[in-house]
Amino acid sequence: MEQTKVVLADHEIPRQWYNIQADLPKPMSPPLHPGTGKPVGPGDLAPVFPMNLIEQEVSQERWIDIPGEVLEKYLIWRPSPLCRARNFEKLLDAPVKIYYKNEGLSPAGSHKPNTAIAQAYYNKVFGIKRLSTETGAGQWGSALAMACRMFGLECRVFMVRVSYEQKPYRRIMMNIWGAECIPSPSDRTEAGRQVLAAHPDSPGSLGIAISEAVEDAVSRENSRYSLGSVLNHVLLHQTIIGLEAQKQFEKIGVYPDVVIGCAGGGSNFAGTALPFVRDKIHGKQVRVVGAEPASCPTMTRGPFAYDFGDLAMKTPLLPMYTLGHDFVPAPIHAGGLRYHGMAPIVSHLVREGLVEAKAYDQIETFEAGVKWARTEGSIPAPETNHAIAAVVAEARRAKEEGKERTILFNWSGHGLVDLAAYDAYLTGKLIPYQLPDEEIQRALKAIEGFPKP
Ligand SMILES: Cc1ncc(COP(=O)(O)O)c(C=O)c1O
């Protein structure tokens, strides 16, 4: 019988994360201080993050040890299985083998705990008592709420208002784990009050929620900010996914031709792909594809530029593909993919031609997600559906070209708390949405005059 699940025993879990900065053929442009235009130093970030995470953010070491207390928590659900989607393959009727890492098995239901647990741990050992964060779909907020509870930290989450209203169950999960969840924009911060004064009905955006969470963290003692994607240390923690996948493939003597992930801020995609990009840098033939929404087409239609990570311009200037920091995306259902920028590491790899980007309309992604649910059974998160749409597109291409292909993708989370989105799709209420060019041109005015990477 051919194997459908490849599992690792607890003792086979990787003991180190992988830092791609050590292998980049060309170094990345540094983040800049907006006031001086000079690269930011660790001291500039100290009010926002604990120094042990800042060290990881700037580290050039190839391998970074995973602390024992983090491994202990990972073992609650990791190593996650590498599964073969045979039923979905049959439906697609194309010459493809489809493997996926099931990150939906974590207690919070997505890949997000891989970094939430690490970040809560490093803050705790640095002496921090309380974390603030933002969340889009609620996946990140619930993961950090759980991680904070595990390490005895208080947690406050600013949740993008449109998702807060569409997804009450994520808020309840955060409350179960003991965190406070506030719809953003809110009247709790100066940044939130300014947005509400100008747009009382603002649906919110990740950029606004980040501004609120950073302000909330830096204005209190023993409090820090935590980000669920984009930054180097977050992508680093997620490499556990790709490292496990490599060990699992080795066990069955397979190597993928294509590696796919959906990309919001870039963390699950990078976490899955970076160990394979390392192989690619060293000569291996492998394609690496990031799938984003057509309504928030950061990598496929935005410029590579220096921009702020948030609306209130409180972060350093990051070198990334961006739609402009004041971009407010349409309220599509993949809340976790509605970020105006893309992780600097992923952006750098796209620019260097090591990673490809593709955009999918939300209708196409739900179509793919429902096909998946009707064959493999599990119901994917709306974000994950973008990766599945990319798998469908790869399978179609393989069929047209008559070429066999082995695909790996990251099943980044389950959609059991996103059923309203499926209901909207099944009852014909979802509409296709392509971002108009004028909207991109308008948003890009916000970064005119910034330094160029
Ligand atoms: C299930 C799931 N997949 C993907 C994403 C996108 O985030 P990232 O690009 O950082 O992996 C999110 C974000 O909330 C998510 O919840």
Q: Notable features of this structure?
A:
binds pyridoxal-5'-phosphate; 453 residues; seven-stranded mixed beta sheet; single chain; alpha/beta; 41% helix
Shape: globular
The secondary structure category is: alpha/beta
**Average residue pLDDT:** 95
Question: Cα distance, first to last residue?
Answer: 53 Å
Q: What share of the residues lie within helices?
A: 40-55%
Question: Explain this structure to me?
Answer:
With 453 residues, the chain is α/β, with parallel strands linked by helices. The chain has 18 helices and 15 strands. It has helices spanning 42-45, 51-58, 68-74, 86-92, 113-125, 139-150, 161-166, 168-176, 190-198, 206-218, 232-252, 267-281, 298-301, 344-351, 362-375, 382-401, 419-426, 437-444, and strands spanning 5-6, 16-18, 63-65, 82-84, 96-102, 130-135, 154-160, 180-184, 223-225, 258-262, 287-293, 304-308, 317-321, 356-360, 405-411. The strands form four sheets. It has a seven-stranded mixed sheet, sandwiched between helices. It has a four-stranded parallel sheet with strand order 8-7-6-9, with helices on both faces. A two-stranded antiparallel sheet has the order 2-3. The chain binds pyridoxal-5'-phosphate. Pyridoxal-5'-phosphate (PLP) binds next to helix 6, helix 12 and helix 16.
